[in-house]
Design brief:
Chain lengths: ~325, ~325
Amino acid sequence: MRVAAITAGVARSFLSVTERAVCVIGAGLIGGSLLRAAEKAGRTVWGTAASEATAGEARADGFDVTTDTDGALRRAADADALVVLAVPLPALPAVLARVDGVAPTVRLTDAVSVKVAVADAVGQYAPRARFVGGHPMAGTSASGWAAGSAGLFDGAAWVVAADDGLDLDVWRDVAELAWACGARVVPAAADEHDLAVARISHLPHLFAAVLAAVGAEGGPLALSLAAGSFADGTRVAGTRPELVLAMCEGNRDALLAAVDDALGRLGAMRGALASTGGLAATVRAGHDGRTRWAAAQEPEGVRVRLSGRAPLARLRDVGRAGKTVTGWA
Amino acid sequence: MRVAAITAGVARSFLSVTERAVCVIGAGLIGGSLLRAAEKAGRTVWGTAASEATAGEARADGFDVTTDTDGALRRAADADALVVLAVPLPALPAVLARVDGVAPTVRLTDAVSVKVAVADAVGQYAPRARFVGGHPMAGTSASGWAAGSAGLFDGAAWVVAADDGLDLDVWRDVAELAWACGARVVPAAADEHDLAVARISHLPHLFAAVLAAVGAEGGPLALSLAAGSFADGTRVAGTRPELVLAMCEGNRDALLAAVDDALGRLGAMRGALASTGGLAATVRAGHDGRTRWAAAQEPEGVRVRLSGRAPLARLRDVGRAGKTVTGWA
């Protein structure tokens, strides 16, 4: 039955870009979920894993996953498939060297949580690839093939990089893969993406870590009293440290700016508490920020044209306005 | 039926301390939940509200709640009931003056989130009261009578102040009220309580506020991408600012110490990020803290004796060890 589905998928891939085959490099939480979600959406999918153990787990679940990266990339080049790099940032150079070696002009995207560093690496190691960066903003504190699911991206934002000069045909591919996986498409320049995620993802991870350490420093009494606000505020401190480090350290410059903004606000708050004892400015600004965030949770959808004058600038404006791309005009 | 229950409750209050009547001053989220939980546990309960509107809501739900504070306190003195002050810290002096006026030696506890400031206020305004501080650590971001429920304290920590010199008979009353409401009893000196909650409750509220403000500063793109880590890390920034301010500003000295600990850690992290780019120390300390918190979530229960040598010092040791009092030895 799976073979029949795959065959049907391959046949359809010649008919419509919405059925393009997908090759996923990396079968961890994100790559494994992508394989499942794209397959469920009717795509032809195959992939690679870093270890034979992971590849075996994926095959046991009925997926065409091997450790033969060159073979998978050659097949992608032959089928004009979209290749998705779902490996941690430090593993990218080696994978990109293989892309350049066996599938140099392939359609290429990624699922890494920073975008400038990935674009730089592609420019250095696989400069001929038709690359459009991506970032599906979904995750759990779990990791590995077994933690993945076809529903991981449901309703999540999937940033598609919209810097000048990239291939609009591949942009369409990436957006349609995001939709096929149930995500909403948010266009953004790579550097704007990195600044935004520093504020709303990387800084929250560091705050959670510091909060957890300050709480633990209070000893058993403090830990036994810690509940609601502490439990929520430190949840992501439970994530595997290696994943947090790869994510945050790969976004150093943008993260420094966010940390400095936070330190400035905390310093002003500390000064007010020590002098007048008043925290109203801090608490009200926080309440206002949370209220604005809540109001932004049902973004307006817009249909866009990938032709005409400056389509990428128009796409960036959609993301900057907090909107999402829902289809083609 | 309720009248019959009340009459039976009063009769029982002469038989056993576990059936002691409870008078709750304040009918907001905490006071209203206390009335419901104690009544559900079979206690005779009555209370007061700051406004006729709130008192009317409570009466419509079948509770004996008025705005006549003097009357409620006189009745408590007559019945040797336990009076629970469930009003915000700034409202305490006025209420304590009424206690001193009409029920000066009443059994008295409170449900305010700081303990040193409350003990100071009692010493100043109602010095003859038989006072033992309390802090049921439960809450939601909602407030008011309608937001309350009999189950609010289920499984929550209820700190019972254990400073030298207080009335052990009232300590027993407060602990038994906490158990009747489904909470677990954690003894602590007032100042140790304040230092602990600064770390695990007040600082998390300020971190949430700063994180929400930093995220909002990123504009619509950042807010549209903010999900898991940001949503969790800023949840309590949605709490009514007045409640957060009363709580945090009332614990200024202890909070300053917690803020300085956090600022020190954030500064070290900022330095490491800017110099070597490494965040391992921060992230690993956070992961370790979160792991220790998770391990502390099923505290060991101990039975204690409220007599013999230094019972209050023994109680404080129970709380310091992260344990909970589950009964009398």
